[in-house]
Amino acid sequence: MLVLALPSLPKIRSLMDINSIITLSDDSIGNTQEIADKLRNNGFQIATIFEFGVITGVTSEENLIKISTWPEVKSITKEKQIHILPPDEDIQ
């Protein structure tokens, strides 16, 4: 009898990561860099850190749900996709 041992496969990342803006609570603005480190350690790919408590970046929907429960996070705004046809295209 032949038994094959297959290695465990890595967890597949979400196919659609979301660009988002994280606004920190007023009490957390002084700890922006520490919170940015925490976000990185939780899979958030940071694009920009603003000293006034706003961090932009990309992560999965699952991570955004988890991050939204942190007391340091006041709000999360997700980027919306808009598709505009070129001016010479017919209206559909």
Descriptive overview:
- The protein has 92 residues and is an alpha+beta fold.
- It has a domain at 18-78: Alpha-Beta Plaits.
- It is 18% helix and 27% strand.
- The chain has helices at residues 32-41, 61-67, and strands at residues 18-24, 45-50, 54-59, 73-78.
- Strands 2-3-1-4 form a four-stranded antiparallel sheet.
- A hairpin with a 3-residue loop joins β2 (45-50) and β3.
- The longest helix has 10 residues, at 32-41.
- It is elongated, with a radius of gyration of 19 Å.
Layout: helices, strands, pairs:
Blueprint: E1 18-24, H1 32-41, E2 45-50, E3 54-59, H2 61-67, E4 73-78
Antiparallel strand pairs: 1-3, 1-4, 2-3
Summary tags:
disordered N terminus, 2 helices, alpha+beta, four-stranded antiparallel sheet, 27% strand, elongated, Alpha-Beta Plaits
Q: Largest sheet at a glance?
A: 4 strands, antiparallel
**What is the overall shape?**
elongated
| Topology pattern, helix = H, strand = E | EHEEHE
Mean pLDDT, as a whole number?
83
Helix content: 10-25%
Q: What is the CATH superfamily label of one domain?
A: Peptidase S8 propeptide/proteinase inhibitor I9
Secondary structure category: alpha+beta
CATH architecture of one domain: 2-Layer Sandwich
Rg estimate, integer Å:
19 Å
CATH domain fold name of one domain = Alpha-Beta Plaits
Number of DSSP strand runs = 4
User: What is the first-to-last residue Cα distance?
Assistant: 62 Å
> How is the largest sheet built, in terms of strand order?
2-3-1-4
Strand content: 25-35%
Instruction: Indicate the CATH class of one domain.
Output: Alpha Beta
Total of DSSP H or I helical runs spanning 4+ residues: 2
Low-confidence stretches: 1-13
